[in-house]
Each structure stands twice: as C-alpha cells, then as structure tokens.
Design brief:
Helix content is about 85%, strand content about 0%. The chain has four helices and no strands. It is mainly alpha-helical and about 140 residues long. It has one domain (about 1-135).
C-alpha cells in the first residue's frame, strides 16, 4: 500500500507543479481554463493531503514514543511535517469549499499560491519518508 501512495504522491507533486507553472502560460489572463483544470486537480490534492496527514501522524506518534529525550532531527522532521500538513489541509479545505460552492473570485489567491508551492514539497517529503520506512 505504501508503494501505491509513494507513486501517487510523487506523480501528484509533479502534476501540481506543472499545472501551477503552466497555467501562467496557457491562461495568463485568467479566462477560466486554469480554473477548470484546478477543479479536477483539487480533489486529488485533498486526497494527497489526507495521506500526508495520516502518515505524518504515524511518524510523529512513533517518534514521540521513542526513548530518546530532547529534540532530535527525527523529532523536528516528524513534528514539522505533521503540523505543516495539518495547516495546509485546513487552508486547502477552507479555500476549496469556497471555490466549489461560492464564487471562485472570493477565494484567497495568496493561499492558493502557498498551497500550490508547498503541497508538492510536502508530498515529496512524505513519499520519501514512506519509502525509507519501508526498507
């Protein structure tokens, strides 16, 4: 199962980056073409965020139960990934619900930019952790 999630998160990270950069070229005046593509990609990003939150929580729980005391690299990575994924999931759901059920113009464009830049980094980091924990 981890292999499937690894591939999904890696492919999704590339797709989100290509869409974010490509939309500046094929829809520079925001005529709605990029918006229709994002309507397809957004549920996939939500699923990827849920996967990232789940595995970040699993890693955080494993690090917290370890016998090490003090702050270590694993502790910082586990907690940083977990809390970043929670914050991005909340921001994504806030904007996505507003985008789907309200006027897309009323959503926060700065939050979409933040999500489009940081979510692929989170997906890549989570998929890397999935493969290193598999070995």
């Amino acid at each position: 199962m981890k292999l499937i999630f690894w591939v999904y998160l890696r492919v999704l990270a590339v797709v989100v980056y290509v869409q974010y950069i490509g939309s500046q070229f094929y829809d520079p005046t925001s005529e709605g073409l990029a918006e229709s593509v994002y309507r397809i990609i957004d549920p996939l990003i939500v699923l990827g965020m849920l996967i990232a939150v789940y595995y970040a929580y699993q890693r955080k729980r494993a690090v917290d139960t370890a016998s090490e005391s003090g702050v270590s690299r694993d502790y910082l990575e586990a907690n940083g990934t977990f809390y970043l994924s929670i914050a991005l999931l909340v921001g994504l759901l806030w904007n996505w619900v507003g985008f789907q059920f309200a006027d897309p113009v009323t959503t926060h464009s700065w939050l979409w930019t933040l999500i489009d830049i940081t979510a692929p980094l989170l997906f890549f980091a989570t998929s890397t952790q999935l493969m290193t924990s598999e070995e």
